[in-house]
Amino acid sequence: MNEQMKMTYKAHPLSFVMKLLVWICAAATVGVFLMLVGYVLVRGVPYLSTSLFSLHGTTDNVSILPSIINTLKMVGIALLIAAPLGICCAIYLVEYAKKGSKFVKAIRLTTQTLSGIPSIIYGIFGSMFFVTALKWRLSLLSGACTLAIMVLPVIITSAEEALKSVDDSYREGSFGLGAGKLRTVFRVVLPSAVSGILSGVILAIGRIVGETAALVFTAGALTKIAGLKDSGATLAVHMYNLSNEGLHMNEAAAAAVVLLITVMLLNAFASFAAKRIKKTSGEI
Amino acid sequence: MQAVFLVCACISILCVAVICIYMFAKGCPAIAKIGVAEFLGGKDWFPTNSQPSFGIFPMIVGSMYVTAGAIMIGVPVGLLTAVFLAKFCPKRLYKFVLPAVNLLAGIPSIVYGFFGMIVVVPFVRSVFGGTGNSIITASFILGIMILPTVIGMSESALNAVPSQYYEGALALGATHERSVMRVVLPAAKSGVCAAIVLAIGRAVGETMAVVMIAGNQARLPHQLTQGVRTLTANIIMEMGYATGLHYDALLGTGVVLFVFILMLNLLLSAVTSKKER
Description:
The complex is a heterodimer.
Chain A: H1 3-11, H2 13-44, H3 65-96, H4 102-116, H5 119-133, H6 140-164, H7 168-176, H8 181-210, H9 213-216, H10 235-245, H11 249-283
Chain B: H1 2-9, H2 11-34, H3 36-41, E1 45-46, E2 53-54, H4 57-88, H5 91-106, H6 109-128, H7 135-160, H8 163-171, H9 176-187, H10 189-205, H11 208-213, H12 231-238, H13 244-276
Antiparallel strand pairs in B: 1-2
């Protein structure tokens, strides 16, 4: 701190207190994050054993491998439903819709509403609609459909942002060369927006991997590798069961490590992809 | 092809409509069967007694307590962190703080709950007494969970304030801190309000983390060290085995939660549309 700043803070002690407070709060935020990751890693890493990854889960080895495979399936199915719908919705909003029309406003409002609904409500809805009304019972399919609705707003908003960030000169150039609207969208606009869309999809994967409350009553808690129509627990649900029973806290900690690392890697990928659009759109 | 895009665009409207219809069509009759006053105002939740009573008032109060606690912890810390990121942070440090905040947003709630179980619960038990599964613990973890929401929205609101405001305040002789706190922050008020509303929604709707650490006793708490059960916890704990009127009562609990979230959403769009004007 130089002399002048010292003088300033002497004259305005409150300003100095404020500065301290701001720094302390920022340090607290980062500190809490580091503590959380640190504790989970320290508690869980020692228990990452090979028996935890055996293909056949029993109540003794409480293997997490079947639930990891279920998680991958869940991600696949949910994205297969949500990604095309969400991206097409974004294409309509950016390329076709009249800006500021009532219909667009309604889509905005409902998307916002969807992103605000808590996962437990999705769980109840899924268990009433997919499980009971459509008679899909507790299955990966019911769970995946529920999750697809849940991640829809994430995909729509990020795809919309990505499409908006594509410079209009691209579209004009494409039209000038004689391409139609559809060709322009698919051959010019989408390829240049792909990393932004990808970042949204990766964020959606992160949400799916970490989701529990919406799945307990839609996909069930059976710890075996499940088919489309079978009940199967994802890793997060499996971990919830383990820590809920209280008998396998160490294994739950190990599962927490796997979850945490997966989600952190996914987030890192997402922000990497998001950074790439900034770079490419900056070059234009 | 435009028609295909149009149909896809309708999907979010369709989803919200179907969810609303299902929730209200199934949940409202349940509430009516029990009686609105008895359901919302009843203090006893004994769903499996021979003379069952379904009063969710303790759960409503529980949700309010933990949410209020989370706001009291999360909003000041989050807001000042946002101020830090927007106006105080050296560029080199920014590269580390921002990813940390983003990752906080990505961590699954079940991991937060687990962290609460192994770290915060024993800590609260030794410092404040009681079992450790308490309002304090739940508020603390929820406070951490809403941090990224508060920080993200407040920071972009702060950055959206024209720099002339800040420069003008400096030119009038205010210190850096005073300019930021008394000029820039008030100018970003509506964005900050939106952030708080969003954070309340997050805290009220959080399920897994809360059910693991809040104790889940369905009675009115008298002390901060006592456990509470929130609306969300009530659903997730009993939905698995509930039948008949008990199941309906849980649906009713869901409807109460849903209505609350919808009201928060309306409030949010009111706040943000005011900002746009």
